[in-house]
Amino acid sequence: MAVAALRPRALLWQALALGVVAGVIAVFSINASHHLAARHIATGFGFLSAAAPIPIGESLITYTPSVSTYGRALLIGVLNTLKVAIPGCLLATLLGTLIGIARLSPIALLARLAALYVELLRDLPLLLQLLFWYGVFQTLPAPRQAMRPLPGVFLSNRGLRVPDLVWQPGFTGVALALLGGIGLSFFLARRTALAPGLAVRLGAFLPVLLLPAATLALYRPAFRVDWPALHGFNFQGGASLSPEYAALLTGLVLYTTSYVAEIVRGGLAAVARGQWEAGAALGLPRGAVLRLVVLPQALRLIIPPLTSQYLNLVKNSSLAVAIGYQDLVSIADTTLNQTGQAIEGVALIMAVYLSISLTISLAMNFYNARLARQAG
Amino acid sequence: MPRFARSLSGLAALLALLLPSLARAAPPAASPTLAAVLARGVLNCGVAGNAAGFSLPDSAGVMRGIDADGCRAIAAAVLGDQKKLKFVPTTTENRFTALQSGEIDVLVRETTWTLGREASLGLEFGVINFYDGTGFMVKKSSGVTSARDLDGATICVEPGTSTELAIADYFRVNAMKYTPVEIQDLQEIHNAFLSGRCDAYSTDSSALAGFRFTQGAHAEDFVLLPELISKEPLGPMVRKGDDKWFDIIRWVSFAEITAEELGVSSRNVESFHDTTNPDIRRLLGLEGDLGKALGLDDQWAFNVIRQVGNTGEIWQRNMAPLGLPRGLNNLWNRGGLLFAPPLR
Questions:
Q1: What residues contact residue B133 under an 8 Å CB cut-off, 6+ apart?
Q2: B275 exposed, middle or buried (CB, 10 Å; 0-12, 13-18, 19+)?
Q3: Going by DSSP bridges, is the β-strand pair B43-47/B85-89 parallel, antiparallel, or unpaired?
Q4: Per residue in A74-106, pLDDT tens?
Q5: pLDDT digits (tens, 9 = 90+) for B55-78
Q6: Which of A31, A39, A65 is closest, CB to CB, to B241?
Q7: Which residues in chain B have Cβ-Cβ distances shorter than 8 Å to A35?
Q8: Which of B4, B19, B168 is facing A53, going by the closest CB pair?
Q9: Are B117 and B243 in contact (CB under 8 A)?
Q10: What are phi and psi of A164, to 5 degrees?
């Protein structure tokens, strides 16, 4: 390893730098604990197992205020942050790629519209956009006058309510079978991609259908649908999407899309013109040149800045507190306010964001390295 | 944006906790907070800055409300001039950190006195300056007349408040369900309630009355439900471990109550310079040296009454316009809870 090759003097400097950093951290923590003790402020993470009287509006796991613990409340915060961050990154990538490609379109109107979108959304503060979308969703009618675009689907200022399939134990097996089927088909499709005959190539996709169907036949779970109905103040039953979540996701996706579009455009533009011309000379249509020749080369330029945008989206989701969506920061803020343990609370927030960000960076770097290997 | 500024001030407050403080070498005998305020010549007073009746700038930009006047009274007692004062706006979420870190000298921010807060925050409550309770406001058109009708309702609340805790308990005890919408910014909460996102808006009943008052001609469209589901005694907070400063905060408030009890107001206080009533003579520093005992001059209470007024005047100026009955916030001998120990 490189360490063995280092000269003693270089080692000394590194040790010194490490010592300085450790010293600063030590001074900080000794001072903090001294001040906290002097002011009789509670310390430690014991509060995580105490009952949390935080009302939480939407949660992916069960939660009862004043009964469940602060630890569970914070876990809900993490899940709520991921619930925005993951679909947010996927949607922003999808929309951003489309708009980035549209900006390079030979159709002038399409290119101009895409440019207008990018400039408009990129130049306005995100918080303003979030408040705007929250305001828009609040103009929806009250539950009693809810819009009913489809039977059983209600749109009101309480959010979107849709019928929900009552989850049966058998469904988990079907979902697993579906995942397995997709994986198997993917594997088969790669093996048969160059095989002659359409039937063989289509046949590779059969596991997607067959595996879940077989599992269904095996378990025969009952299909029961939970229909939403107006009951008192609000709709009960079914699955729901709150206006706060919708406003946050819409705002984050539309804002981040404008940056992703620029990254995609830049990546595509950086691929030499000769590549387009070479593709055209082979008689490939423009779409095929884009898909088979240009995009694969552009990806290597797109991935690193795209990673930054994913990280930004995750961090920007903490603006949720302004529009009442209970993400990690919102719940941690309330926690540290109720328990008075600001240092622990902020440390937890930092640890979670750091973990999410590092995971994204790691995954994207891995993907980029794989692309590089394929290219090289 | 304000939220950004708030986050920054929270961060600054945290840093202040983490970094070594230069003031640690100060002699422990006197009050470090008093010494710092005197040296600075200005009182840093934490308020809400957005709550009608408590602290809200008027059309001329002057902070109005009983919390704002509470700050003025302390400045008048300590520095002799109610104008030697800087209002520091705080949120429900950063208020305690701001006080813990020394960014403010005292927090007068409609904060509820609870055991949990006093035992774990390193802060303590000086006195109660307002007796309140958690209430609910609904639109008249909803037809709701009692908090018991709120089963299944969506309720707007400010995160990090004791309101949250009171609602959680109330609905649990009564086996009712509700959906909270927790928004930090007061204006956004009001918007959410007005637009119908929430069926009810819950906070201290005084703040609800203030909210209704600010609706002007539409005030009649809103109903304050009769139930008060919790006791919310509000008061100023100081850091623990500075007993002299604690005494000053507490006795400034008692002086205002005593003044109302004795009939001394900002308008007539100067006419008492040759009074023979020993209670008034002690209050105004004409005899004894109560001011010195507090570490202040003998004019301390005179300055408070002359420049800010007694509890009755403060109420008339700030709460009466909101249409709030005085109720528990009257003097003890008029059916209220205001009771000051003797100044002697």
A1: B204, B205, B228, B229, B230, B231, B232
A2: middle
A3: parallel
A4: 999 999 999 999 999 999 999 999 999 999 888
A5: 999 999 999 999 999 999 999 999
A6: A39
A7: 17, 21
A8: B168
A9: no
A10: -125, 140
Amino acid letter for position A1: M
For residue A62, CA distances in Å to A17, A65, A73, A86, B181 come to 47, 10, 10, 21, 17
Q: Quick one: tokens of A256?
A: 């981040």
Domain boundaries, chain A: 2-41, 70-166+224-375
Give Cα A349 to chain centroid, integer Å: 17
Using a CB-CB cut-off of 8 Å, the residues of chain B touching A142 are 196
Residue B180 corresponds to which amino acid? Answer: P
Cβ(B146)–Cβ(A34) below 8 Å: no
In DSSP terms, which residues pair with B55 in a beta bridge?
B51
The pLDDT of residue A195? 65
pTM: 0.77
Are the beta carbons of A322 and B93 separated by less than 8 Å? no
What is the rounded distance in angstroms from the CA atom of residue B142 to the CA atom of residue A234?
A: 12
Q: What is the DSSP secondary structure assignment for residue A294, as one 8-state letter?
A: I
What tokens does B117 get? 């807060």
Asked whether the beta carbons of A180 and A211 are under 8 A apart, the reply is yes
Q: Which residue has the tokens 């010195």?
A: B292
**Domain spanning A70-166+224-375, CATH class:** mainly alpha
CA B62/CA B59 separation, integer angstroms: 7
CA atoms within 13 A on the CB side of B268: 11
Average pLDDT, chain A: 87
Contacts of B241 in chain A (CB under 8 A): 38-40
Q: Which residue of A has its CA nearest to B185?
A: A322
Task: Give the residue ranges of DSSP H helices in chain A.
Answer: 2-5, 8-38, 70-103, 108-123, 126-138, 169-192, 198-203, 206-219, 243-269, 273-281, 286-289, 295-316, 328-339, 342-375
DSSP letters spanning A22-52:
HHHHHHHHHHHHHHHHHTT---SSGGGGSB-
| Kind and range of the H or E run holding B316 | helix B311-318
User: What are the structural domains of chain B?
Assistant: 2-131+233-334 (3.40.190.10), 134-230 (3.40.190.10)
**Can you name the residues that pair with A153 across neighbouring β-strands?**
A150
Size of chain B, expressed as the number of residues it contains: 344
Residue B305: closest CA among B337, B261, B274, B344: B261
Residues of B in contact with A234 (CB under 8 A): 152-154, 179, 199
CA A116/CA A327 separation, integer angstroms: 32
User: For residues B228 and B112, what is the distance between their CA atoms, to the nearest angstrom?
Assistant: 15
